Amino acid sequence: MDNQDYKLNSSFSYLVILAVLIALGVAGRLLPHPPNFTPMAAIALFAGFIFVKRYIAIIAVIVTMLLCDYFAFGSLSASWFASKSMFVVYLALLFPIIFKNFLQKKLPLRLHGSYQIYA
Predict the structure, then answer these.
(1) Could you list the residue range(s) of the whole structural domain that residue 33 is in?
(2) pTM of the model
(3) How many domains does the chain have?
């Protein structure tokens, strides 16, 4: 099945999903949670697959991260944007969106030589 089979009926549906993803991401990062357990990777993966246009998925991830970092740290300074670690974090969250076509292909996975599983 192609991604076109799952198209939503209206652009309003996309806006609702975008707003819900951003709200869940902000709440998931700002509310108390176990260490290294935030929904950002799941949001990036889901947004990459649900939105047909990639820029909407990128907007969802970037806006969520910027809002979370703003509320968590109080402000976003130029030195914060210049740090290499934040650049790597943002870039890593964009990987599922950037490599969407590669991830959607059904690649055979060989187990024990003769069996194949198609993901």
Answers:
(1) 3-118
(2) 0.69
(3) 1
